[in-house]
User: Fold this.
Amino acid sequence: MTRRRSMIILAEFFKKQGKMLTLDEYRKLGDKTPIKDFIVRRYFGTWARALSAVHVFLGADAFDKVEPKEESKPKVESKPKAESKPRNKMVEPKKPASEENI
Assistant:
C-alpha cells in the first residue's frame, strides 16, 4: 500500500463516518477501521498531517457543516469615541544654549 492509496482509503472511511476523526476516536473504533493508525502515521509522520492530506484530497467543503454555537453572546454596541486632540502638533524646535552660559 502506498501513501496515496492509504489517503484514498481514509477519505472514503471518513466520508462514511460523516466527519474527520481524531486519533483517539479512530483508535476507539478498533477493528472497524480499514487501516491501523500506526500505519497511517508511518506514511504521513503524524495524524495531523494525514488529516491535512485527506482534507486537501476531499476538498475544503467536504465536512464543513454549520453547527450551532453553544453560547451566542449578543453584540454589544460600541460607544462612539470622544474626539481626540490631533496628534500631529507642530512642535517648536528647542533653542540652542547660548554661549554665554557655558
About this structure: DSSP finds four helices and no strands in the chain. Residues 3-58 form one domain. The radius of gyration is 30 Å. Confidence is low (pLDDT under 50) at residues 65-69.
